Amino acid sequence: MIEARGLTKKYGQKTAVAGIDFTVQPGKVTGFLGPNGAGKSTTMRMIMGLDRPTSGTVTVNGRPYAQLKSPLTEVGALLDAKAVHSGRSATNHLRAVAATHGIGRKRVDEVIEMTGLQAVAGKRVGGFSLGMGQRLGIAAALLGDPRTLILDEPVNGLDPEGVLWVRNLVKHLASEGRTIFLSSHLMSEMALTADHILVIGRGRIIADAPVADIVAGASGTRVRVRSPQAARLAELLQGPDTTVTSVEAGLIEVTGATAEAVGELAARDGVVLHELTPVAASLEAAYMSLTADDVEYHSAPTGAGTTVQPGQAPAIPQEARR
Amino acid sequence: MSATATVPATRAAARPSGAARVTFGRLLRSEWIKLWSLRSTWWVLPITVVAQAGIAWLIAYFGTQEFGEGGIDYTITAADIVGGLQFAQLAICVLAVLAITGEYSTGMIRSTLSTSPTRTPALLAKGLVVVAVAFATGVVATLVSWAVTYPVLGEAHRVDLGLEMNQRILLGAPLYLAAIALLAYAIGALLRHSAGALATVLGLLLVVESVFALIPWTFFEKISPYLPMSAGSQLVFTDNPDAVLGPWEGYGVLVAWGVVLLAAAAVLLRRRDA
């Protein structure tokens, strides 16, 4: 269980985290989403006692991190893949970390095996790929078999097999009643992995709800209608609560009316339908609409009708767009 | 990464027992593993020993030849045996500085502080390991220096171990290395950047102290004997009635420099974000 109360971090004039409150519950996977620079990593570093909050508190299993007598068995963390001396082998890194808690060589070998690092365990970390570095970071986080696991972008750089492994691992650990808190840029990955989502934007929590609620709360469900008489149907559908957008010739999208309502209306007026599909809002769409006003670095649209995804198009500062 | 580990293999049953908590002894063990698992350690320490003993041999070899020819009246002392300290201390300083700044430059410090969240014990554990290794290296280097100069000096120039001064110098050499390692480690912990800390330590020992000693202004002349190397090296110098500080007083001043700077580093470590 992780609890933040009024957690604030300022760097000089700039507020990175602005008095946030949240609780990460045990027994489920909580996703931590936010655009670049929203305060995710700062928050995670404050949980781990690495950065000192300007004000407010954050506790893990009821205590500030610095008061934990056995931090490795309480919290395992992958903060970034570079928290390792590049001149040391993976095994020696894990041995050194384990030694602080009197954890033996047997457990070190276990986590090496769990993370699939056997082949490179004796090699110096400096030569590791991003994915291997992530696996080593996860191995270190698991050393103490912790009750709480904090993973910052764990699937970054992992191959598809590694992504699947992380997904299964965190779900399994959550099912054992542990607290899992992970951040990711990949909304699709979060939709598959997380049970609960915290969305942070500009240092503030802008959503804190189960995944299903966040998806449902996103700007309504849409209905996609394909019809040779699309223009006529669009006219019929026009109303105060309904918006109709024309996607292409013969294809419209309706917001504010159910598929049933559209179908019945079409039947009444004898409009031929070729397709009538309710389209559930994706977590990604929900996330985009939630953070639309909170993105620190906006991307320039790459073309009409193209969805702009944070972090995928080259980031252009807001000023540059004007 | 073809090795598959799709089955999450944590086993609640295999959870390390409740005894898995952080103790100072365990931190020492961890720092010990960290030190010896870096290649630089395996380079620097032999270099320290070889350099100190090599310089001792050169002093003894060429010294005895000079005596033979010119008939100069000179008694070889233990200070000549440990003459290589001048070089050995530089190697030890590099090791001590990098032991801590290497953690900052690689990000390892975040792992270290996560496992030891009260921070000060981790700083002290690493410092203790560095100082102990510097002392042990000094012991080995001094013994090797003694051994390689023994046949060269022969009966004629044998160092008199019965003299209290010679005993003090031979014991003092490892102690000096340990104290200079403490100073370098503390400066590394304060500055956190390898290049900056190395430049500061080496600049202090090699440049600042000699410049201070050279400038004939009363202020510098008063300060100069209290600078770390000038003070501490009294312990490995022959008896000098004119020295401002005695051997052990001077050594005390050097240790005080290290302790004060390490205390400052500890205060900052607790305050600063990692």
UniProtKB/TrEMBL annotation, chain A:
GO MF, any single term: ATP binding
Coiled-coil segments: none
InterPro entries assigned to the protein according to its UniProt record, in alphabetical order: AAA+_ATPase (IPR003593), ABC_transporter-like_ATP-bd (IPR003439), P-loop_NTPase (IPR027417)
Keywords per UniProt: ATP-binding, Nucleotide-binding, Transport
Record-annotated ABC transporter domain positions: 2-227
Keyword Cytoplasm: no
Region (Disordered): 298-322
Pfam families: ABC_tran
CDD domains: ABC_BcrA_bacitracin_resist
SUPFAM superfamilies in alphabetical order: P-loop containing nucleoside triphosphate hydrolases
Recorded family membership: Belongs to the ABC transporter superfamily.
Protein name: Multidrug ABC transporter ATP-binding protein
Organism whose genome encodes this protein: Cellulomonas pakistanensis
From TrEMBL, chain B:
GO cellular component labels: plasma membrane
An MF annotation (GO) of this entry: ABC-type transporter activity
Domain of life of the organism encoding this protein: Bacteria
Residues passing through the membrane, by range: 42-63, 83-102, 123-149, 169-191, 198-220, 250-269
UniProt KW keywords: Membrane, Transmembrane, Transmembrane helix
Protein name according to UniProt: ABC transporter permease
Annotated source species: Cellulomonas pakistanensis
Origin organism lineage: Bacteria, Bacillati, Actinomycetota, Actinomycetes, Micrococcales
